[in-house]
Amino acid sequence: MAVLDVSGLNVWYQAPDGRQMHAVRDLDLTLEAGQRLGLVGESGCGKTTVLNAVMALVPPTATVSGRVIFDGVDLLVPDEINARKHRWTGLSLVFQSAMNAFNPVVRVEDQIAEPMVVHGLRDPRAAVRRARELLELVGIAPSAGRRYPHEFSGGMRQRAMLAMALACDPQVLIADEPTTALDTMVQAQILTLLDRLSSELGLALLLVTHDLPVVSQLCDRAAVMYAGRIVESGPIADLYHSPAHPYTRMLFDATPDVLSEHAVASIPGSPPPLNEERTGCAFAPRCDSAAEVCRTEPPPLVRPGSDRLAECHRPGAGVDRPARKAHHV
Ligand SMILES: Nc1ncnc2c1ncn2[C@@H]1O[C@H](COP(=O)(O)OP(=O)(O)OP(=O)(O)O)[C@@H](O)[C@H]1O
């Protein structure tokens, strides 16, 4: 059953000169209960914008349309009484920088307790007790909750932010580059923790990252974004072994692997401008397998396998190119 169902999502930002920048274009995304989905793609493709639209965090000058159904409620309907409560209790957000998520002058346990009190889930004393339990759940001694954020290491702060994200017993944890700012050892610990929490609590996970190895370690599925659209989605191993969209293949080939003797293959060119109207496939100018039709006609939605979708005129083109086989999933 879908716990989060995003359909026809569009986001336009207003540039300083008044132009409309179409950052997310008719995007559909479904997250099943307990599923772990990685939203991947290179910088600027719109990953964070999707999360921000779901969580109503886009700037007031942005325009958002479409449907974001969570628990039977459309979160994009502005006067929906339940939307705010649902958004901040059922869905929970973890950011890249834990330091920015905490108020430096408030004790950690009080900050974890606050959302429970604000949303009327617990009285202040019970909320602090629960905050200490949550700290223990993420591997921090409950007594450390009396400390201030600057007394925590980077890894501890990231754990504490996870504890705060769990405060309202969410069904969905949304994590935006949760390990990008951490060193490799701490990154591995946080990924293991996310894995454990998601299994133990039955949490669905929407993980936004440009880091494919992180997705392959933690997620069952991936949705690959390019220029504001999801161009391919499916089980992560299928996407690696038989990518339908050339962008998926080229993204894997551009991912470094410490064990590989192959050079990393970069993707030439850059994504199209956001204010541009499109006729063909947005990736065609950079694609190593593009045909004429790719430049002139919008790509069709194809099903390269059960449980898989791709938007491509030439699904599977170029999969036997030599740059592949460089990484392991
Ligand atoms: N507040 C804003 N005003 C105008 N344009 C914006 C704003 N926020 C994002 N954009 C633009 O929208 C596009 C998508 O940005 P977004 O941050 O969602 O991408 P991303 O895939 O998350 O990238 P990254 O991995 O670098 O965070 C980019 O071209 C970005 O410059």
UniProtKB/TrEMBL annotation:
<protein>
    <submittedName>
        <fullName>Dipeptide/oligopeptide/nickel ABC transporter ATP-binding protein</fullName>
    </submittedName>
</protein>
<dbReference type="InterPro" id="IPR003593">
    <property type="entry name" value="AAA+_ATPase"/>
</dbReference>
<feature type="compositionally biased region" description="Basic and acidic residues">
    <location>
        <begin position="305"/>
        <end position="314"/>
    </location>
</feature>
<dbReference type="InterPro" id="IPR017871">
    <property type="entry name" value="ABC_transporter-like_CS"/>
</dbReference>
<keyword id="KW-0067">ATP-binding</keyword>
<dbReference type="InterPro" id="IPR013563">
    <property type="entry name" value="Oligopep_ABC_C"/>
</dbReference>
<dbReference type="Pfam" id="PF08352">
    <property type="entry name" value="oligo_HPY"/>
</dbReference>
<keyword id="KW-0547">Nucleotide-binding</keyword>
<dbReference type="Pfam" id="PF00005">
    <property type="entry name" value="ABC_tran"/>
</dbReference>
<feature type="region of interest" description="Disordered">
    <location>
        <begin position="305"/>
        <end position="329"/>
    </location>
</feature>
<dbReference type="InterPro" id="IPR003439">
    <property type="entry name" value="ABC_transporter-like_ATP-bd"/>
</dbReference>
<keyword id="KW-0813">Transport</keyword>
<dbReference type="InterPro" id="IPR027417">
    <property type="entry name" value="P-loop_NTPase"/>
</dbReference>
<dbReference type="GO" id="GO:0005524">
    <property type="term" value="F:ATP binding"/>
</dbReference>
<comment type="similarity">
    <text>Belongs to the ABC transporter superfamily.</text>
</comment>
<dbReference type="InterPro" id="IPR050388">
    <property type="entry name" value="ABC_Ni/Peptide_Import"/>
</dbReference>
<feature type="domain" description="ABC transporter">
    <location>
        <begin position="6"/>
        <end position="252"/>
    </location>
</feature>
<keyword id="KW-1003">Cell membrane</keyword>
<keyword id="KW-0472">Membrane</keyword>
